[in-house]
Design a protein that fits this description.
The chain is of the alpha/beta class and about 290 residues long. The protein is globular and about 60 Å long. The protein has helices at about 70-75, 135-145, 170-175, 185-195, 220-245, 275-280, 280-285, and strands at about 5-10, 20-25, 40-45, 45-55, 80-90, 100-110, 150-160, 180-185, 200-210.
């Protein structure tokens, strides 16, 4: 058994977190470069929490400019045991209207210009992404949403697009045919990197729009997205507080905590020492 340290990654519209006691912004240096911002460390109801605004304070980073490796490394380096990601999403379903929350359980990754792994030449690893989120965290965040009166749907499939432009109508219609429920630009490679860092991960999407598959309506506009985000931001912050309050007093181990045990394929004698050094926070327990 051990204590929780919850890493909270706030997306568009969620640039701060309420209720943090003894909070202080902490700069973190990683082998992968700079995170999106300093990380805000404090406690909520006695639980240690680490908050990172995904796009930086002031929202100065576009989705394709996010250094997700640095963000996840920084969380791990500061002692995060689990990650709760909050992200603005578009809806691909009539019954997921703007203002709704969607707890994601699957992803389709359509990004193409982003570095997606901590591992590579000199140290190769293949983690399983069959079940890409932590069911324990997802159940807790669903309960939290219901408790604060947020309309919530569980089991959503998230289509990760490259961006920063919104979809064409043809793309949006195709994603609906694929069975996707929501669409966004930031969950990948974030979720993959969290798994490589052995961090259980859950994502709750705040629905801001209907994407552009409704042909009788105008396409997505940032002004409309921001309006819904501002309306939902307070409820999202309440959801986080309720989620923290519902954590068990002690953190039982998760299978994700040790998923690298069966993922690294490079023989010990062939491993690059420089890669091992860069992976000190992400995978250091493997060769400690």
């Amino acid at each position: 058994m051990s204590e929780w340290t919850i890493g909270i990654i706030g997306g568009s519209g969620l640039y701060r977190i309420d209720g943090l006691e003894d909070a202080h912004w902490t700069p973190v240096t990683t082998p992968w470069g700079k995170p999106s911002d300093d990380l805000l460390v404090g406690r909520i109801a006695g639980v240690r929490c680490i908050f990172l605004p995904r796009h930086g304070r002031g929202h100065y980073l576009a989705p394709g400019d996010l250094n997700s490796r640095a963000n996840i490394d920084a969380m791990k380096r500061l002692g995060a045991t689990d990650i709760l990601s909050i992200s603005a999403v578009g809806s691909l379903r009539e019954d997921l209207p703007p203002g709704h929350f969607a707890v994601v359980d699957q992803f389709i990754d359509r990004t193409f210009a982003r570095t997606k792994s901590f591992f590579g030449k000199g140290l190769v690893a293949h983690v399983s992404m069959a079940d890409p989120v932590c069911p324990r965290l997802s159940d807790l965040v669903t309960q939290a949403a219901l408790a604060v009166g947020a309309p919530v749907t569980t089991g959503a499939t998230y289509l990760a697009m490259e961006g920063p432009q919104f979809s064409t109508r043809a793309e949006s219609l195709m994603y609906r045919q694929w069975g996707c429920d929501v669409i966004g630009m930031t969950a990948m490679p974030e979720a993959k990197l969290a798994r490589e860092a052995e961090l259980p991960y859950a994502l709750v999407g705040m629905v801001t729009d209907y994407d552009c598959w409704r042909e009788e309506e105008a396409g997505v506009e940032v002004t409309n997205v921001l309006r819904v985000l501002n309306e939902n931001a307070a409820r999202a912050r309440q959801l986080v507080l309720e989620f923290i309050a519902r954590l068990p007093a002690e953190r039982a181990p998760s299978p994700i905590d040790t998923c690298l045990d069966h993922a690294i394929i490079t023989a010990p004698e062939a491993r690059d020492p420089e890669m091992i050094a860069r992976l000190d926070a992400v995978a250091g327990r493997i060769w400690a």
